[in-house]
Specification:
The protein is 41% helix and 18% strand. By secondary structure, the chain is of the alpha+beta class. The protein folds into two domains: 13-154, no CATH class; 170-321, Cyclophilin (Beta Barrel). Helix 1 packs parallel to helix 7 (128-152).
């Protein structure tokens, strides 16, 4: 375990960037040992009042989610904005970062805390382009850890907190009559270990810049997880950092079966809707599963729900160009 109090402050921006990127690669396929220590009660400092560690795990999960999606990602967007002065970026990272990463380091995520401390320590000397690269790398690493944190969180406790009576399931929005055909598909999504695959067409006409960013990241493999509030929707944290303009959004609960979305602001998540949803937020449209493959999605969704909520088995999605 890396000591958060020993940041490598003497590194160049390029050296630090390389180190963060290497760590990102390590944790794509393997859960970080630090996170495993948090969820198994193996923390050396035994953070948690009265000898329990559920509160430590719960608060760290919330802090990590907010840090990755609602603190670092806006900083990445601003760092890539030519209108934002570098002095503002330096001030913002110093103001917004420490409350999160100092606490997360205390909670066991010492590598994240160490990287963030190193970024802050060289921010005054780094150029704007260097800060944009470092902010993006730090955000990518936080997203990777957040994906594992979401997967292994004990969501099964939700069985103890169910609404009284029968909950009426809202009907799914039917798929459009003008679904893409197999001949129009330009990406393939495959889930292992089930061996199920579907084809989809990206929404180049609706969000061309977002689709271009997504295509540039292909192929990739990521841990597949399920939404725990929205309804029959599943997502995977993609290994990319898009700040592309979004031209077309869609209300989630009005989206049709087989819709692909991409959530830049909540972790660069590829989202697939396979049944009824209730969330009324707007989300960027990324594409649509071809009509003849939509019936395959129920089996995937059911397996991913069991994986996320109960048995914690690992299901992997691979996305590649056709």
């Amino acid at each position: 375990m890396i000591d958060q109090n020993q940041p490598e402050t003497s590194q160049s921006p390029a050296g630090l960037l390389k180190k963060i990127d290497l760590e990102c690669e390590k944790v794509i396929k393997d859960e970080p040992g630090e996170l495993r220590a948090i969820r198994t009660g193996s923390l050396e400092n035994q953070a948690g009042s009265y000898g329990q560690y559920f509160s430590t795990m719960d608060i760290a999960a919330g802090m990590l989610r907010d840090y990755a999606g609602y603190t670092m990602y806006p900083l990445v967007r601003m760092a890539r904005d030519p209108q934002v002065p570098v002095e503002h970026l330096r001030r913002m990272i110093e103001e917004f970062d420490p409350p999160y990463t100092n606490y997360l380091g205390y909670s066991g995520l010492t590598t994240l805390s160490r990287f963030a401390t190193a970024v802050r320590s060289i921010a005054s000397e780094a150029s704007k382009d260097e800060l944009a690269e470092l902010f993006g790398a730090l955000n990518r690493y936080a997203n990777r850890v957040n994906a594992w944190c979401h997967h292994y969180f004990p969501w099964g406790l939700g069985d103890q907190f169910r609404y009284e009576g029968d909950v009426e399931e809202v009907p799914a929005v039917p798929a459009s009559e003008t679904l893409p055909t197999a001949a129009q598909a330009d990406i393939l999504l495959r889930w292992e270990p089930m061996g199920i695959e579907v084809r989809a067409k990206l929404a180049h006409d609706s969000n061309p810049e977002l689709c271009a960013d997504f295509q540039a990241a292909l192929p990739f493999t990521a841990l597949q997880d399920h939404a725990v509030v929205t309804g029959k929707s599943m997502y995977a944290w993609a290994p990319m950092m898009s700040t592309a303009p979004v031209r077309v959004k869609e209300q989630i609960n009005l989206a049709p079966l087989g819709r692909l979305r991409f959530s830049q602001g909540t972790g660069q998540k590829l989202v697939l809707q396979y049944g009824p949803t209730t969330e009324t937020l707007l989300a960027p449209v990324l594409g649509q599963v071809v009509g003849e493959d939509i019936p395959l999605l129920d089996a995937v969704g059911d397996a991913v729900w069991a994986s996320t909520f109960h048995d914690k088995s690992l299901i992997w999605i691979t996305v590649r160009a056709l």
